[in-house]
Write a structure and sequence with these properties.
- By secondary structure, this protein is mainly alpha-helical.
- The chain has 2 domains: 1-30; 34-104.
- It contains 5 helices and no strands.
- The chain has helices at residues 2-27, 34-40, 43-58, 69-84, 87-104.
- The chain starts with a helix and ends with a helix.
- The model has no long low-confidence stretch (mean pLDDT 89).
- Keywords: Membrane, Transmembrane, Transmembrane helix.
- It comes from Cereibacter changlensis JA139.
- The chain crosses the membrane at residues 39-58, 88-105.
- Pfam families: AzlD (PF05437).
C-alpha cells in the first residue's frame, strides 16, 4: 500500500508540474505582439479579483449576527494594500483581520 501511495503522489506531482511548467517553457520562446503582452499583464489581477469575489459573495463566512467576516477582512486587506503596496502586508492583514473578526464579532 505504501508503494502505491508513493506512486500516486509522484504521478500527481508530475502532472501538476507539467501542467504549470510546460506552457511557460513552450510559450517563452514565442515573441508576442506588444498588445498581447500588455493584455497578459492584466491576467494575474483578474484571477485574483475572481477568487476574492467568489469567496466574498459565493460562500461568505458569517457570524451569528449576520456580519460578513469575509467582506470585512477583504476591506481591511484592500485598505492595507492601497496604503502599503506590499503583497505580504496585504495578505498578512487579511488573514489577521479574518481571524480577529471571527473571534471578536458575535
Amino acid at each position: 500500500m505504501a508503494s502505491s501511495f508513493l506512486l500516486t503522489v509522484l504521478l500527481c506531482a508530475a502532472v501538476t508540474v507539467s501542467v504549470r511548467a510546460l506552457p511557460i517553457v513552450l510559450l517563452s520562446r514565442l515573441n508576442f505582439p506588444l498588445a498581447v503582452r500588455e493584455w497578459l499583464n492584466f491576467v494575474p489581477a483578474a484571477i485574483m479579483a475572481a477568487i476574492i469575489v467568489s469567496e466574498v459573495l459565493g460562500h461568505p463566512a458569517l457570524t451569528e449576527a449576520g456580519w460578513s467576516i469575509s467582506l470585512l477582512a477583504t476591506l481591511v486587506s484592500f485598505s492595507v494594500g492601497l496604503a502599503t503596496r506590499s503583497l505580504f502586508l496585504t495578505v498578512l492583514a487579511g488573514v489577521a483581520a479574518f481571524a480577529l473578526l471571527g473571534w471578536i464579532l458575535p
